[in-house]
């Protein structure tokens, strides 16, 4: 499992307030915002919180136009890895 995925897993667990074991497949398949809400238990506010915490953790900056372009968790992973 990549370090990016491991760190995002920790952030998601903190946001959800519970221990959820998320496999790389969960992150790497295209999970839309709607599916993230259902399959990962993340609300739209949680997703914004995830991005905010990821900005701090990975020392990247996501502007609003990039944020609305994220259609999946894998888009966030790609953005982080491309911009570190």
What does this structure look like?
The structure is a single chain. The chain is globular. The protein has 84 residues and is mainly α. The protein has a single domain, classed as ACP-like (Non-ribosomal Peptide Synthetase Peptidyl Carrier Protein, Chain A, Orthogonal Bundle). The longest helix is centred in the middle third of the chain and has 15 residues. It contains six helices and no strands.
N→C terminal distance: 18 Å
Q: Please name the fourth-level CATH homologous superfamily.
A: ACP-like
| Biggest beta sheet attributes | none
Q: CATH topology, anyone?
A: Non-ribosomal Peptide Synthetase Peptidyl Carrier Protein, Chain A
- Rg value: 11 Å
User: Which regions contain 5 or more consecutive residues with pLDDT less than 50?
Assistant: none
CATH class, please? Mainly Alpha
Element order, helices and strands? HHHHHH
Which bin fits the share of residues in helices? over 70%
What would the average pLDDT be, to the nearest integer? 78
Number of H/I helices? 6
CATH-defined architecture: Orthogonal Bundle
Shape: globular
Structural class of the helices, strands and pairings? mainly alpha
How much of the sequence is in beta strands?
under 5%
What is the number of independent domains? 1
Number of strands: 0
